[in-house]
Amino acid sequence: MSDRERDWDFYLRTVANSARDSSFANDPASDPSLLHAVKKLCDFCRLEEKYSEDLVARVYPHINKIFQRATASQTQSTSPNGILLLVILQFFLDFGEVVLHDADPSLRTFFRSCLSREFADPVVAAATLDFLNVNKNKLLISFPNLLPQFFPLLLKLIAWNGEKLEKAFLKFFPGLVSPGSFLPLFPSLVDLPLIVVALEKVERSSGSLIGSNIASIQKSAAPEMLLALMDEAYTGSTIGDGGGDSESEESSTIDVADPLFLEILKDENDGLAERHWTSPGVAAVLQAATNSLQSDRLKQILNIAPQLLDVYFTIALRAANNSLICALIPILMARNSTLFPDKNYMYEVRRRLLEFMLASFQRSPDFIALLKKPIIDRLGEAYDSPEKTELALQLCWAVGEHGGGGGSHKDAARELFESLELLLYENLSSSRLGLRWESAINSDNRNFRKSSQSRLLCFVITAIAKLATYHRELLPRARVALGKVARSRLSDSRVWRRARDYLGLMDDPAICLSVLGPSRPSYGHTHNPGTVSWNDGRTKMIAHIPFYILGEQEGPPFHDFSFSDVIPRKR
């Protein structure tokens, strides 16, 4: 007998004995030689191509029995089973066709019974990501719904282990995005910092997360324990910390936030669930989460989450169909003002949300007409907070730039135009912008509110002028609206002068169409506004010279060049 045959027999006996030995029935991973033996047998099956089917057939019954025992006794196990189960899962994936073993149930069992309890173990977490990256193509082809189904659990890997697993997680992260997970995945990515906060508080309250299934909290017979954890997770205090009259105040906050806590710490994708962010109680809870010092883990995830959003939005623009993107945009609008209260994090995330929204409108201008109701609602919230004002500004720009959805959506364009009119007249009649913002009344604050109002008015009158250029039937109403602004002589001259300039443009339809008209050739126009086709300079008049370089200038032209200097001559 050769050395290889003796090694084979030794490792096979080790595995067979472990599968039969009742002393290891409830904890197979406690046998220190078992993991090494299973790895060696798997290597033999891969290397011995001539006899691989026979070897696989001899090994499979013992390995399968060990897998079943390890997953069934997970709650009684004192040793981590993750590494052993991952080696067995690799065997199932490599040789499943030989022994007619469907790996899908085994993979799901691993996620539910093992990874849900051992995701906080750095060794198991790293091995899991290595396993997923090695088998990524096979998993996506053979089991396309597996990773999207368990994306909440897999997000816990990166939330808890942070930068140590960042590169490995980013490699397989695109596999989490599918039609079934596309919409629910977005709120989970935005809420990654909250996942960290919740997990850290659970660990401080209940001890190590390794070996405990957090999802089982949802089925606990002691809901008051969950309420205590929820209160501690978001307010930094326990139920007993308050005074005699604190019970009523805290209980209302806990009742509102409790469904959110369960939603954040779930392990499987069960669809797009409502997250109760609109409640004032939850807003207070989010603010309280920043009162304590941020942990290193939280700091890391505040940097990682925007990178994951970059990948998510890139996939969305490249691969997602229009119906999914159209359904995502209202969610994006709602979450723009409900983010984890960290200044840098909010800035980075909001910038990405707005950039994706504008890119989506650029790709499919019809979205503006389809989403006219949520757009109108957001325009009506322009006074509520600075972040909602910024969202309204971007929506005004998109509505004007894309003509309310295009020339074929005249009814939607009219409704959007009316909403812009209302916003304009409200700003003209009173300085409502910022009246509900919570800040001290001082000189800096007044200047900021004045600047914000002027910026909003500039965006609104530009959108009105552009809509009227797209849809000529709106021109009379646009002239009336812009005329009121031009005559108002607001303290900020940029606003009424812009309105006056647009009124002047409307007197020359050709120039108006060139400057404010559509920028997409698909609308039947071959030019882009604000650009000059110098090659046509000697054969026809150029109406779209960027006239704005002469704006607000009085008297003789300030430039010292003539058109003969810039238009090429024939030689």
Automatic annotation (TrEMBL):
Residues 278-521 form the AP-5 complex subunit zeta-1 C-terminal TPR domain. Pfam families: SPG48 (PF14764), TPR_AP5Z1_C (PF25154). It comes from Hibiscus sabdariffa. Coiled coil: none annotated. This is AP-5 complex subunit zeta-1. Residues 30-156 form the AP-5 complex subunit zeta-1 ARM repeats domain. It comes from the Eukaryota. Transmembrane segments: none annotated.
